[in-house]
Amino acid sequence: METRRYNVDEKIDHRTLREVYLRPFKVGLEARPWTIMTSYQKINDERVDTSIYLIERILREELAFEAVVMSDWGRGGLNDTIQSLLATTDLEMPGPAIRRGNRLMAAVLSDEVDEKTYLNLCVKRLLRLIEKETLLPARNGNWISRQDGHIDQQTEELEADDVSGFQTVARQAARDGLVLLKNQDLLSIRPQNLNTVAIIGPHAKQPTAGGSGNAAVNPYYIANPNEAIAAQLRGQNQNLNISFEQEMPVSRTPPTLGNQIVKLNPAYHGLRMNFYAGNSFEEGIVATSFWKDSHI
Questions:
Q1: What number is the average pLDDT over the span 189-204?
Q2: Which of 23, 116, 117, 203 lies at a 20 to 30 A Cα distance from 82?
Q3: What are the Glycoside hydrolase family 3 N-terminal domain coordinates in residue numbering (predicted)?
């Protein structure tokens, strides 16, 4: 979950944890991933990156995952220098190191961490990952990079693959992921029996595809749902009346009020900002200012 992800503590009994929440991870491990990333939140009073139970006992011992475990990005990703290493979390992301690096070196030099038991295994897993990425130096001393020929060849082969094959898999995955809670004689839809269809929602004309931030993916193409649905329906009923309504607009940031801000008094036109001494709004206003827009 994303809500309060840095400080929420998920309370999950062991049976539910294993039968419900760990199941997708078990399925994912069948693909033999090179890395796994821990989450921000606590689970049963433990930060995931420092949890010996979740990472060492379940992930590594029970599920036999031998590759790299990395922290989530930045703030709250890696929460303890020593405990995360004891839990076999290998890598602090994204760098430069905050709780690893010099802090880990100091812990090793002061014998707070057993170098042979924990650090060496961590380094081995990281070296294996680097080797898979063909970034280790060759025997002649020259570094092998991702720009070398065999990597480019793999890229060319991927780009030359049948794009329609990817489309078929993506379409089937989308179909399999749909959940119909209740069907009151609505499905299946027969366009030839319809007179009017309304397509509602802003993303029907401006689809959000590929995610953003660390979840950003560049798709081969983006279909306009409004046009695609209309084409499918009209292919079976040329006389069908299809309408579109945007309804609630969407934006990553709330729109500013701009000139819509009301006049608070004849002397000022804008937003009045009151600043309080504390967070209870009961300790009195310490300052007031007027803003021409609501963009803070």
A1: 88
A2: 23
A3: 11-74
Q: Do β-strands 42-43 and 46-47 pair in parallel, antiparallel, or remain unpaired?
A: antiparallel
Q: Name the 3-class secondary structure at 9.
A: strand
Burial code of 6-15, b = ≥16 C-beta within 10 A, e = fewer? eeeeeeeeee
Alpha carbons within 13 A on the beta-carbon side of 18: 7
Q: In terms of DSSP H, where are the helices of the chain?
A: 14-16, 23-29, 81-86, 102-109, 120-132, 149-160, 163-177, 225-234
As given in the structure block, the two tokens for residue 131 are 């080797």
Across the range 140-164, mean pLDDT stands at 48
State the first-to-last Cα distance of the chain, in angstroms, to the nearest integer: 28
For 45-80, what is each residue's pLDDT tens digit? 999 999 999 999 999 999 999 999 999 998 789 999
Task: Compute the chain's Rg from CA coordinates.
Answer: 27
